[in-house]
Amino acid sequence: MHAIPTLRTAARARYSLPVTLLVLLLVCSCASRRPFIADSVNAQADQETAVADAAAFQADLSETYLDPERTILSESKLARLQALGGLNFYPIDPAYVVVADFTRYSEPEIIEMKTSSARLAEFRVYGRATFELQGEELALDVYETTNPNVPEEYAGLLFLPFRDATSGKETYGGGRYIDLPSPEGDELLIDFNQAYQPYCAYSDGFSCPVPPAQNDMTVAIRAGVRTTELGD
Fold first, then answer.
1. CA end-to-end span of the chain
2. CB 127 within 8 A of CB 105
3. CA dihedral defined by 81, 16, 69, 204, rounded to 10 degrees?
4. DSSP string covering 60-83, please?
5. Which Pfam families does the protein's record reference (predicted)?
6. CA-to-CA separations, 142 to 49, 103, 135, in angstroms, rounded
7. To the nearest whole percent, how much of the chain has pLDDT over 70?
8. Percent with pLDDT over 90 in the chain
9. Residue 87 in contact with residue 62, Cβ under 8 Å?
């Protein structure tokens, strides 16, 4: 069965909107924060804590899709996922927890991000994160929703969509997302072990933002959720 995303499931639906319910769900789909995200950045971040946070995040994500009351999966796909025991993840690797240099844009541009449907999703280009991974210098834009109806308790949550060398091969071709707290300083903790796929990776009928070209990475990010074969 297809459950309508609510504030309990909106962590997976903040940006993946059912096309037929777009207006109805606009508020709740943009209003919930992901659990298990760090509140601050420490350049000497405790790797054990990062691993524990990622494990909790992944367990919660998988449990949501397995729960008949919260899942957006069809009955057949839910049965397949239950048989598999949950979503497929890469092994948690502390090497994919990076402390990026973060530059806020003084005059953020408002953009209309393409989605998997005809809908355009409006975001503010909040800043840029630069970091080194696998011996390469990388830079990703980080976004903030312009939706004025986000409750105060969820204010400050940023959106990081990306593609990498695994996209369309080992992970969803439409990219993956990470939700991040807005940093107070000039560093941003990014844990790719908490990368998740939009609803569009699992079910038709949703409208999901497509990562902009500047957030395409040539490296393979083998961390976070990966493709789970659930059939048609």
1. 15
2. yes
3. -60
4. HHHHHHH-TTT--S-HHHHHHHHH
5. DUF1684
6. 24, 10, 22
7. 78
8. 66
9. yes
pLDDT value at residue 38: 45
CA distance 69 to 102: 39
Q: Identify the sign of the CA torsion 6, 10, 15, 17.
A: negative
Helix (H, G, I), strand (E, B) or coil at 30: helix
Instruction: Examine the pLDDT at 95 and tell me if it is beyond 70.
Output: yes
User: Is 64's pLDDT higher than 70?
Assistant: yes
Q: Mean pLDDT check: name the lowest of 21-25, 84-88, 98-102, 145-149.
A: 21-25
In contact, 94 and 110? CB cutoff 8 Å:
no
Helical pair 75-84 and 47-66, crossing angle rounded to 10 deg: 140
Label residue 35 by pLDDT band (50, 70, 90): very low
What local confidence, expressed as pLDDT, does residue 29 receive? 36
In angstroms, the CA 10 to CA 224 distance is 19
How far apart are alpha carbons 162 and 191 in whole angstroms? 13
Determine how β-strand 206-207 pairs with β-strand 110-114.
Answer: unpaired
CB-CB contact of 176 with 197 (8 Å): yes
